[in-house]
Write a structure and sequence with these properties.
homodimer, alpha/beta, Isopropylmalate Dehydrogenase, 2 domains, two-stranded antiparallel ribbon, 14 strands, binds 3-isopropylmalic acid, NAD binding (chains A, B), Isopropylmalate_DH (chains A, B), NAD (chains A, B)
């Protein structure tokens, strides 16, 4: 088994190093190979997703990804900006199913903006379609407006699209995930306005008939953004498109107050996957040794479970993380009175020790 | 001056009746004419936005709107569903500038999901473009996929579009609003992925140069959804497109915990406007006399200020609402221990008395 390790920019290098350390201590047989991605790859090779990096990612069973991006690349043309690496990996590897758990750890309830009773025990799973929708839909570009309010004016446009099979496959992923949890799926759409999401709603409903044991409901995206704030624990599995999923998964993550703890997985049809923390590259604290490596370490656990067929090793990592939290160790982002503040490396060492 | 009164469905009739009562007591000279809209209009005339209603709305200086929608219309074809009335009014009246204040009233801090210190004193203004974007962009529909992951499969699609003048005019609205407040604008986009929002960002930046006294910053929509949860008070004026504005304005409204208090205004280039509460038609409590009429009453105040040039009358309503809150009157949605629970009509009467 082969893992492509792509640390990327900002705190990416530091946090991925800790996850690699944790993986190494498990004494499993896999090969790890590191390559440049994002701004780091642009600087070294002139492109955020160099050929060699893409080739490595394609050949590997799984990709362990840090984070990409930095304000300093904002002026580059879009095709060369760091985020293009992540979009390119999703597209080229066909990573259509994005798993974004939003979990509030018992000891970190206080870190949330929400009142403790609303957030304690939160455990929702947002499943975001990741290779379709307006992210990749063609045509797109700039032109002179062919009609509309200002015909002839300079216009930019994008195309939102979903085909029936694209919706079917992500719906199956959601229903199957729900079967392993509390058997409820909320499908989020905007069928009252968008043709794309009327099809989405129709297809999810049809697929749902194959899962009579799972309760399906539908919610408009604006309402979902509200209900997440009002009563997040009312959700279990949420399935939605690429654009709405981008927004709602980040909103849900931030509700926990501890986004530094949240992993993610992006899978294709053959369970090849890319694993990355839900947070970004945080250039402001890069290189200071203070970033929280736990989201990346927990992403490595998801990788073991989903792509490398090592569920027991995944369990070991996850309980080690719970142990270090229980022991009161905290990086700066989740630190509070009465707990012990540690740096990135100390946190990684503590997880290794707990394993 | 003429006001078109469109109560609509669910609690619409009850809450609009209270706002009309408040308007009448001000002793100003205007004519009010009522017409059917939404599900009620579909039942009476076979269409959610009958010709006569649209004509009345167009001729009026302002529209006072209740709410539309009910689950029972879910099975109708899209063109006949209640929501089409509101989309049709926006389009036909050219109501491109939607003002969605998210204010947390001092006495209602406890109603929020958020910790009091994060929400107390919140006063942000979300300005949502309302006649462009993927809401109205053509082409849209169903077809056989011309390319993509599953060529030939059944596909649904929509088009996101913005022209330069559409972005310019909403940007001016935002910068001018900011000048009357704390002189900060956050423009929300997804320029890292969408062509449409790269143009958006470019144009807002250009327009911003005409307002050197206003501080402009840019934020991606996913990050905005997070920062609203984390530190809502860091925002002042937020300007964004139709789709993102739909989601973020509802998220922000729910953060206050008292969406029953939040008015909205939708204006066109000649300050003709549609005024409606931020909440929906709440069919579950319709006819029970328990709905909160304050958002509609405050929408009437916005109407007096923006479309009817009666700022003093608007002030009178707004301070009357503050007075009834200070006196401890609360409808069920904002009721808490130690306050007096009242119904819709009693609340309207109390505002009238305070005026
Ligand atoms: C960096 C950006 C293109 C990306 C997205 O919008 O998908 C990010 O926000 C994410 O959610 O992984
Ligand atoms: C009813 C619906 C079409 C509408 C919208 O999406 O604009 C509503 O959510 C709103 O925000 O006024």
């Amino acid at each position: 088994m082969k893992i492509a390790v792509l640390p990327g920019d900002g705190i990416g290098t530091e946090i991925v190093a800790e996850a690699v350390k944790v993986l190494q201590v498990l004494d499993l047989k896999f090969e790890m190979e590191t390559a440049a991605v994002g701004g780091a790859a642009y600087e070294a090779h002139g492109h955020p997703l160099p050929e060699a990096t893409l080739k490595l990612a394609k050949e590997a069973d799984a990709v362990l990804f840090g984070a990409v991006g930095d304000w300093k690349y904002d002026k580059l043309e879009r095709a060369l900006r760091p985020e293009q690496a992540i979009l390119g990996l999703r597209k080229n590897l066909g990573l259509f199913a994005n798993f974004r758990p939003a979990i509030c750890y018992e000891q970190l309830v206080g870190a949330s903006s929400l009142k403790p009773e609303l957030i304690a025990g939160l455990d929702i799973l947002i499943i975001r379609e990741l290779t379709g929708d307006i992210y990749f839909g063609q045509p797109r570009g700039r032109r002179s407006a062919p009609d509309g309010h200002f015909p002839g004016a300079e216009e930019a446009f994008d195309t939102m699209r979903y085909t029936r099979p694209e919706v079917e496959r992500i719906a199956h992923v959601a229903f199957q995930a729900a079967r392993k949890r509390s058997k409820r799926v909320t499908s989020v759409d905007k069928a009252n306005v968008l043709e794309t999401f009327q099809l989405w709603k129709d297809v999810v409903t049809e697929v749902g008939q194959q899962y009579p044991d799972v309760k399906l409901d539908h919610m408009y995206v604006d309402n979902a953004a509200m209900q997440l704030v009002k009563a997040p624990k009312a959700f279990d599995v949420v399935v939605t498109g690429n654009m709405f999923g981008d927004i709602l998964s980040d909103e849900a993550a931030m509700l926990t107050g501890s986004i530094g703890m949240l992993p993610s997985a992006s899978l294709n049809a053959s369970n090849q996957g890319l694993y990355e923390p839900s947070h970004g590259s945080a250039p402001d604290i890069a290189g200071k040794g203070v970033a929280n490596p736990l989201a990346t370490i927990l992403s490595a656990a998801m990788m073991l479970r989903f792509s490398l067929n090592q569920p027991q090793a995944a369990d070991r990592i996850e309980s080690a993380v719970k142990d270090v939290l229980a022991a009161g160790l905290r990086t700066a982002d989740i630190h509070s009175e009465g707990t012990t503040k540690v740096g990135t490396r100390q946190m990684g060492d503590a997880v290794v020790a707990a394993i």
